[in-house]
C-alpha cells in the first residue's frame, strides 16, 4: 500500500513490520475468572483493522449477565488478593511488566492492526509506556504505608473500569496497574473497536500466574459499560472517554458509595510566543496534534500563536506537514496512520466541514489517501476565532485550529476560555514567562517547550469538564484507596 | 543541477547586518533560540527511519559519491596520498559501477600530489588550510596557507574559524577572516567553513556560527575538523541544515553542508541522508551540496554495497585498506 506521491529522488522503499509475529485467533471469548468464555447470550461482534477494513477477529460481546459473573468473580478474588502482602502483589506486577516487554513487538503489531496507529508509535511510545506503568506501580505495592495516605491504607474492592480506543493497551495499564498495586480486583471493558490487546493482556495475566478473578476483561459496547458502572457490587468506577458519557456515568454513580474518577475530553491550547525556539515549536505542534492522528484527549488542538510570528510559523508548519508520511500503519516509516473507525471519521469530517462553513480557512498538504480504510489528511485551519465550533468542540482527529494572540494575558484568557482543562503547552525561551503563564492556565498537564510527553511518575488528569481524579504518580494511588 | 556561482556575493538581502560589529551581534543574537531537548529528539526520531532495499541501494551510492575521502595526518606521504586518490577514483576495484567519491581532502603541501592522482576523474581535491585544525595563527599566515593550496590546484578549501574570537564575542573578526579567506580562494575554489562545533559547545552558538559563515560567503558550512572529542552529530547537522534552508529562503543563496568526523558506518551515513531529505529535501541530495568528511566510512559503504549486490557479507579483506 504505497500511497504517497513523493517527488523526492530519495524515495523510501516499503519497510513493513512483519505481521506474522502476532497470531490472532479467529474468535475470542470474554475473560472471566481466569477463563475465556462465550457471552451468556452468545452474542459476538467483529473487530476490523481500520487501515484496511479487514476483519481481524470475532469477539464475544458482554451483556448484563456477563457483567454480573465478572463482578462476582472479582469479588470472590478480592479477599485473598487484598490480603496478600504488598511485596507479593508487586511480584505479579513486575512479572506482568516483564512479559509485556518480552512480547512488546507482538503487542505493538497487534495494537497497530486493531487501532490503526503507526507501528512507530506503538513500538516507541505505547508499549514502552505500558511496561513502565506496570513497573512503576509494582514499586508502590509494598510502600503504600509511606504514600501519604495514612498507615495501611485499604483498597476499595472491585474496580469497574471502562477505557477508550485511542491507546487501548496504555489506558488499560493506567487503570489496572494502580488498581492491582493497591489490592483491588478489576473488571475492565475495552472499547468495542479495539478489544484485542486487552484480550492478549488477559493471556499475559495467565502467563504471569495471576490468581483467577483478579483481572476480568469484558469486550463489549456501551451497554456493557453502563451495566458495569451501575453494578451495585462495584466499589470504584474509573472511566476514560468522552465528556458526554462521563456525565452519564457521573449521574449513574451519584448517590452511591462508589468512588469515581473521570478522564474526559480536552481542547488543549498550545501557546507559541514570539521568542519560541521555532524549529522545535513546529515539531511540538506537529507532535501535539498529529500524534495518534490527533485522537488524543490531551492533544494540542488549538494553536495559539503570537500574531507577530504567525506567518513565519505557519510557513514552517506547512512545510513540515508536507513531509508527513501517511499510509500503511505497519510501515516503520509511516507518521500518520488510519482513523480508528468509520464513526470517528464521520465525526471528524463533519466538524471540519463545519469549520469551512463557518469561514475558517482550510489547508492540507498534498496527500493521497488509501482507497480502503478510514483516513483523514492532516488538516490546518487558519483565521479561526474563539467563536468557531472548531475552536470549541473537541474534534479528536488530525485537525489543528490556529488562533492568534497579542499579549501573554490574551493568550492565557483564550487558552482558559473553554469548558475543558486537560492540557496546555507553552513555547518560549524565557523561563520566567513559562512559570508565570503556567500558573495562570487551568489545565491538568502543562508542557513547556515540548508536548505529549508521558511518564508513569507524573499525575495526569483534568480541570472542569475534562474530568477529575488523577492517574499516574503517587496521586494515582488515591483513586484506588479508601482514603 | 548544481549551478551555483562559485563565488556567490554575500547575501544582499542581509547586507546591512554586517555593517558593524553591533549590527552583526544584534542579528546573530536575535536568531530564534534552539531547544536542545527538542532538537535532539527530532534528530533521534529521524534516526528511526527504516531504509531498505532500493532506497538503501540509492542511499549507499549517494553516500559514496558524497565522501570527502580524507587523510590529515602528520605521517602523510606522497605514496599515501596517491593511494588515497586511486581509492577515490575507483573505490571498489572489483566493481567499476561504483561511483567515485566527491573529493580527496589533504593538507596544502599534498595538494599537487593529490591533484595528479585524481586527474581526469572528476574527483575534486579539497585542502584544509588556515592553520588547520586549531586556527591559531596570524591572518596573513592563514591567507598564505590558503593561497598555497589554491595555487597548487585545490578545488576546495576547508578553513577553520577562529573559535577563540567567536567565543569572545568578536563576531566581526571571525566574519572578516572568512571574507578574506573567501577572497583568497578566488573564483576557482569553493570555500568550506569549519566551525568546530564541539568547541562552540551550545546549539545557539552553532546556529549563530552557521549564519555568520553564510553571511561571509561560505559555499559550505562544516561541523568539525575531526580532531576534537565531539564531531558531527545528527543533532548539530540537523541544526545546520535548518540554517542553510532558512538562509536560502531569505536570500536565495544555497549553501552546502558537510558533517565531518565520527561518521563511520553506512547506517550512520544513511541517517544523515534522511536528515537531509526531510529537512532540506532533494535540492541538497547531491555532492555539490552535501558531503561527508570521513575516512573509514567509505569501506563500510563498500561492504554494504557488495552485500546488497551479492546477498552476503564479504568482509574487510575484500575492500582496499588505502
From TrEMBL, chain A:
SUPFAM superfamilies cross-referenced by the UniProt entry: ALDH-like
InterPro entries documented for this protein: Ald_DH/histidinol_DH (IPR016161), Ald_DH_C (IPR016163), Ald_DH_CS_CYS (IPR016160), Ald_DH_N (IPR016162), Aldehyde_DH_dom (IPR015590)
GO MF entry, a single one: oxidoreductase activity, acting on the aldehyde or oxo group of donors, NAD or NADP as acceptor
Domain Aldehyde dehydrogenase: 39-482
Keywords assigned by UniProt, alphabetized: Oxidoreductase
Domain of life: Bacteria
Family per similarity comment: Belongs to the aldehyde dehydrogenase family.
Name of the protein in its database record: Aldehyde dehydrogenase
Native species: Streptomyces spiralis
TrEMBL record, chain B:
A single cellular component GO annotation: cytoplasm
GO biological process, one term: deoxyribonucleotide catabolic process
Keywords: Lyase, Schiff base
Superkingdom of the source species: Bacteria
InterPro entries in the record: Aldolase_TIM, DeoC, DeoC/FbaB/LacD_aldolase
Parts of the chain that traverse the membrane: none
Protein family (similarity comment): Belongs to the DeoC/FbaB aldolase family. DeoC type 2 subfamily.
Name this protein carries in UniProt: Deoxyribose-phosphate aldolase
Amino acid at each position: 500500500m504505497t500511497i504517497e506521491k513523493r517527488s523526492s529522488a530519495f524515495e523510501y522503499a516499503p519497510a513493513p513490520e512483519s505481521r506474522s509475529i502476532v497470531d490472532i485467533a479467529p474468535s475470542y471469548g470474554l475473560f472471566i475468572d481466569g477463563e475465556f468464555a462465550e457471552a451468556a447470550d452468545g452474542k459476538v461482534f467483529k473487530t476490523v483493522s481500520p487501515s484496511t477494513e479487514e476483519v481481524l477477529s470475532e469477539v464475544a460481546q458482554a451483556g448484563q449477565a456477563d457483567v454480573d459473573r465478572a463482578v462476582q468473580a472479582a469479588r470472590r478474588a478480592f479477599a485473598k488478593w487484598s490480603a496478600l502482602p504488598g511485596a507479593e502483589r508487586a511480584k505479579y506486577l513486575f512479572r506482568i511488566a516483564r512479559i509485556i516487554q518480552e512480547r512488546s513487538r507482538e503487542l505493538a503489531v497487534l495494537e497497530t492492526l486493531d487501532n490503526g496507529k503507526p507501528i512507530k508509535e506503538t513500538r516507541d511510545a505505547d508499549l514502552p509506556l505500558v511496561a513502565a506503568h506496570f513497573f512503576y506501580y509494582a514499586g508502590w505495592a509494598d510502600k503504600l504505608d509511606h504514600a501519604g495516605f495514612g498507615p495501611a491504607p485499604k483498597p476499595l474492592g472491585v474496580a469497574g473500569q471502562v477505557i477508550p480506543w485511542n491507546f487501548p493497551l496504555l489506558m488499560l495499564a493506567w487503570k489496572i496497574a494502580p488498581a492491582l498495586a493497591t489490592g483491588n480486583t478489576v473488571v475492565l471493558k475495552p472499547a468495542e473497536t479495539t478489544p484485542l490487546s486487552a484480550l492478549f493482556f488477559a493471556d499475559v495475566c495467565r502467563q504471569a500466574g495471576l490468581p483467577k478473578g483478579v483481572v476480568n476483561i469484558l469486550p463489549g459496547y456501551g451497554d456493557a459499560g453502563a451495566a458495569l458502572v451501575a453494578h451495585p457490587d462495584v466499589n470504584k468506577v474509573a472511566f476514560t472517554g468522552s465528556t458526554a458519557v462521563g456525565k452519564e456515568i457521573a449521574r449513574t454513580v451519584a448517590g452511591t458509595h462508589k468512588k469515581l474518577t473521570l478522564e474526559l475530553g480536552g481542547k488543549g491550547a498550545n501557546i507559541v510566543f514570539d521568542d519560541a525556539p521555532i524549529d522545535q515549536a513546529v515539531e511540538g505542534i506537529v507532535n501535539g496534534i498529529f500524534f495518534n492522528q490527533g485522537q488524543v484527549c490531551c492533544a494540542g488542538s488549538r494553536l495559539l500563536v503570537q500574531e507577530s510570528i504567525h506567518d513565519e510559523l505557519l510557513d514552517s508548519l506547512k512545510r513540515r506537514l508536507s513531509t508527513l508520511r501517511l499510509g500503511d500503519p505497519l510501515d516503520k516509516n509511516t507518521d500518520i496512520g488510519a482513523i480508528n473507525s468509520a464513526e470517528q471519521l464521520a465525526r471528524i469530517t463533519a466538524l471540519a466541514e463545519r469549520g469551512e462553513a463557518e469561514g475558517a480557512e482550510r489547508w492540507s498538504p498534498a496527500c493521497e489517501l488509501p482507497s480502503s480504510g478510514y483516513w483523514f489528511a492532516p488538516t490546518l485551519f487558519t483565521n479561526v476565532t474563539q467563536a468557531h465550533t472548531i475552536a470549541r468542540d473537541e474534534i479528536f482527529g488530525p485537525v489543528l485550529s490556529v488562533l492568534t494572540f497579542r499579549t501573554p494575558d490574551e493568550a492565557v484568557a483564550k487558552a482558559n476560555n473553554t469548558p475543558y482543562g486537560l492540557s496546555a503547552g507553552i513555547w518560549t525561551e524565557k523561563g520566567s514567562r513559562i512559570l508565570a503563564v503556567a500558573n495562570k492556565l487551568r489545565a491538568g498537564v502543562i508542557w513547556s517547550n515540548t508536548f505529549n510527553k508521558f511518564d508513569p511518575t507524573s499525575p495526569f488528569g483534568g480541570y472542569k469538564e475534562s474530568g477529575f481524579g488523577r492517574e499516574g504518580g503517587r496521586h494515582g494511588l488515591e483513586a484506588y484507596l479508601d482514603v | 543541477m548544481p549551478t551555483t556561482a562559485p563565488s556567490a556575493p554575500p547575501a544582499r538581502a542581509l547586507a546591512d547586518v554586517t555593517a558593524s560589529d553591533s549590527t552583526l551581534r544584534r542579528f546573530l543574537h536575535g536568531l530564534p533560540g534552539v531547544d536542545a531537548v527538542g532538537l535532539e529528539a527530532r534528530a533521534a526520531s529521524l534516526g528511526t527511519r527504516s531504509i531498505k532495499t532500493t532506497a538503501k541501494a540509492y542511499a549507499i551510492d549517494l553516500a559514496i559519491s558524497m565522501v570527502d575521502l580524507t587523510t590529515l595526518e602528520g605521517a602523510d606521504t606522497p605514496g599515501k596520498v596517491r593511494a588515497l586518490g586511486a581509492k577515490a577514483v575507483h573505490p571498489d576495484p572489483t566493481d567499476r559501477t561504483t561511483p567515485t567519491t566527491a573529493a580527496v581532502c589533504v593538507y596544502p603541501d599534498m595538494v599537487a600530489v593529490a591533484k595528479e592522482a585524481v586527474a581526469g576523474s572528476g574527483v575534486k581535491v579539497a585542502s584544509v588550510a588556515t592553520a588547520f585544525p586549531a586556527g591559531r595563527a596570524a591572518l596573513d599566515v592563514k591567507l598564505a596557507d590558503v593561497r598555497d593550496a589554491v595555487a597548487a590546484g585545490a578545488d576546495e578549501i576547508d578553513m577553520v574559524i577562529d573559535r577563540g574570537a567567536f567565543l569572545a564575542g568578536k563576531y566581526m573578526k571571525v566574519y572578516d577572516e572568512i571574507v578574506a579567506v573567501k577572497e583568497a580562494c578566488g573564483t576557482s575554489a569553493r570555500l568550506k567553513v569549519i566551525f568546530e562545533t564541539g568547541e562552540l559547545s551550545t546549539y545557539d552558538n552553532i546556529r549563530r556560527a552557521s549564519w555568520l559563515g553564510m553571511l561571509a560567503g561560505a559555499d559550505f558550512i562544516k561541523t568539525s575538523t575531526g580532531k576534537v572529542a565531539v564531531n558531527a552529530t545528527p543533532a548539530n547537522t540537523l541544526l545546520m541544515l535548518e540554517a542553510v534552508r532558512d538562509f536560502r529562503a531569505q536570500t536565495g543563496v544555497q549553501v552546502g553542508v558537510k558533517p565531518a568526523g565520527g561518521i563511520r558506518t553506512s547506517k550512520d551515513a544513511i541517517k544523515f541522508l534522511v536528515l537531509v531529505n526531510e529537512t532540506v529535501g532533494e535540492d541538497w541530495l547531491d555532492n555539490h551540496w552535501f558531503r561527508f568528511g570521513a575516512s573509514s566510512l567509505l569501506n563500510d559503504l563498500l561492504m554494504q554495497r557488495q552485500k546488497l549486490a551479492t546477498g552476503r557479507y564479504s568482509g574487510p579483506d575484500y575492500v582496499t585498506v588505502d
